[in-house]
Amino acid sequence: MMIYSSLLGLLNVDAFRHDFIQNIGVTVMSLSALFAVLALTYFKKWKWLFSEWLTSLDPKRIGVMYIVVALLMITKAGTDALIMRTQQAISVGSNHGIVSSSHYQQIFSSHGTTMIFFAAMGLMFGLINIGVPLLIGSRDVAFPFLNSVSFWLFVAGMVLLNTSLAIGDFSGAGWLAYPPLSELQFSPTVGVDYWIWSLQIAGIGSLLSGINFIVTILRNRAKGMNLMKMPMFVWSVFGSMTLVIFAFPILTVTITLLYLDRLIGTHFFTAGGGGNAMMYVNLIWAWGHPEVYILVLPAFGIFSEIVSTFSRKRLFGYTSMVWAIWAIVILSFTVWLHHFFTMGAGADVNGFFGIMTMIIAVPTGVKIFNWLFTMFRGKINFASPMLWFIGFIVLFSIGGVAGVLLAVPPADFQLHNSLFLVAHFHSMIVSGVLFGYFAGLTYWFPKVFGFKLNETLGKYAAYLWIIGFMTAFIPLYVLGLMGATRRMDHYDVSMGYQQLFIVAGIGVLIIGSGLFLQIVQVALSVIKRKEYADRTGDPWNGRTLEWSIKSPAPSYNYAVIPEVSQIDQFWEDKQSDSDKLQLKDIKPFNMPNNSYKGLFIAAGSFALGFGAVWHILLLAIVGLLIILITIILRTLDENTESLVVIDSHYNAGLGANK
Amino acid sequence: MNNINQRFMNYIFGYLTCIILTLSAYFLATTKSSFWYLIWVIGLLAIVQFIVQVCFFLHLSFRKDDRARLMVFLVMTLFVTIIIVGSIWIMNNLNNRMMPSTKSVNSYMNSQDGL
Amino acid sequence: MSNTNEQTTSMIVHAEKSKTLLGFWIYLMTDCILFASLFAVYAVLHKNTFGGPSGQQLFSLPYALLQTLILLTSSLTSGLSILSIRKNDIKKTIYWTIATFGLGLSFLLLEINEFHKLYIEGNGWQRSGFLSSYFSLVGTHGLHILVGLIWMLILIIFIVKKGFTKKTVKGFTMLNIFWHFLDVIWIFIFSVVYLMGHVGL
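The joint structure predicted for all components is written out below.
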């Protein structure tokens, strides 16, 4: 029954009581936030923060903000990993480690949820925002305000998730919250509701971005850039966003139905009453499998740009790369059952999905070989982006063949939910998604900020991540084959797991130092930015359009929209030494004004989410009204754009400052 | 002007066709024909009406202007088919193999008070 | 501000070719996936009556037919309102939109009435998996109808105050395809839930 009530709903003092480690987490988060507020006040940067960043509709700025949030979330979820590794290394026999069993459940649930939805999706959308308009020769995305709304919904979801650490608790049902465990009967606290609502809010943001970037790619391309002349990164984003628009509604429905089960007593997935918990697993993975391809496709696209740039060679097999992307897009909707081979379907069903899973490895393999063929006889520059790529090739391939093994249902019966599975998917996500986006960060950093990152630290960070990853996860492959289950917070000495867990723990520390070096790298590079300045706009001898303008790129990207007639137009221009930019070509154009309304929509969403979690009806209604009114006000807005005039001191190749 | 008349005729034609299709399906459902026959024909009538409405109300066509909308629409229908047919196939299979029989559910319910 | 036929027609054409309409169309495609998931849930759960009544026992076919014909007619009137924009006839546009609103509201009231009846008879969404899936599928459609009705009111106010501008015309064009889309979804709800339910699916 509806138990929405009063001003406090289910909130009480107990919501603020936590164990020691959670208290440390809350303290660190609060102190960081406080420190940021104090720093902004002391340096009088509030106006700057609001006008230059928070209300900006420039996708490059929005992209940077996504990435900042994502990196913070990697740190948080990485800490979860550290706690888990420590627990699994020492919690043997009579020792029960540093966290209780129920807390451990929340930690691995939070780790997965944060990493997938906020770290990986954040890095992805950040780089897409930065890269797509630049690479298609456009000044902006199709719907700039919607872009801002997407980002702020992402933030609202993130804040809601992190609130669970301080107020109440988080779900202990894993990153996908399977019923019946996630139903009210077995998860009576607000944890699962926090999970539902932070994903719901962030998910709407993702869906809107999907629509935005598809229209951007279809309609905002520079003249002459046919679809088959686009950079491969743009194709990969096109494929990924197609998956976003068709997969995310499934997530929306499924977690809403779970929420209804918990709130008003429906029987979608309950153990009785005519519910079917297996249907949840079916639906959530019908979303979940496309989701992992959503994450990895843009990373593949970044690797395509990087491999061709740093091998000084055109990408091998452009057409087959495009076909591979679309094969992956279609096939990714035909394999989802491989996540629950053990749920009990017959050999015909299991067999079909097992075969489809093996087939989907083929287009991925095509891409790997095309990258290698691109490198063949190229003039290779092993800068840090290439190191990330090399790490990817090795580790992704190992993880990939582990995946082909798991695709065989009888083999999966032994390995499902073992640490072998955990090692497999971390291999794919870390070496594929994470390494790809790290490489992209290094690659596009100069274009956004005007200076390069310190190369040496970048290289060391890559080495540490690669070595650290192997140290942390190869033991997990072995442990999985030995029979170790995932999500264990304690085991008996006789299992013989401990030594490998200790090795894995060391691996996480190595990864952690890699992450630490990346933070130092950014800090150091900021300090030395004059020394590392990118004076030409083309620090890597690049191939695509964004390297034809100055660094940092002006908010409008291109004073004159480039004319394109072939793939790698900028590279071809450099070879033929043609001078394209004419002063008389510059015409005034409109750019969107800043808007604070995205922030209001986020605030309203957070209020709605918090109210939904704690059953505070009034707050939820207020939140919903804020969202609706803001949307209506936006449609009434007359002054959404301003004219930009480039002055006569514009020099071809270097942009005028705004 | 021509365009308006054409659009108007589209709407009238579409509307009348849909009325006919709706009433046909309705009256068919009230007859006592075989179960599977009815399911297939009602389903077919629904799909035909779907196509009529997409063409005549939503004005989706093969024109170059409509190409992007058409492509997204076709991909959507592909994925919708996969999701629905796939889910039905999978869940049917799982239910047959994994769910308790109606007999055991009923006997459980009878043994519990208040159900 | 007064317009000519050519101007309003070109506003419609411009609106139909705009990025906004393409984006809105794509959003409608995502909404199709949303409904597909709800249909999948209905397909899987519709036999799970947990000792309670089935659709065959609960649903009145003539009632559903009435709803269907009302919604179908409202889809027609919505299209006619767009044609009135092309003819630069602001009065007709408003009248046809009000007609659409009236029919849509009748549809919604009929649906609320049916839901209410089921609820007070003890066949609410908590009764069984079947009823949960019924209410979520048909209820979500009803929510979309409600949003459409509110949108219609807002647009009527807009057009009364501002007349035919690029913005108001674009708004009507979007609402129009949204409303058509809702009838498309209803075809399947009517066929699968009511007709096939009656047959004994």
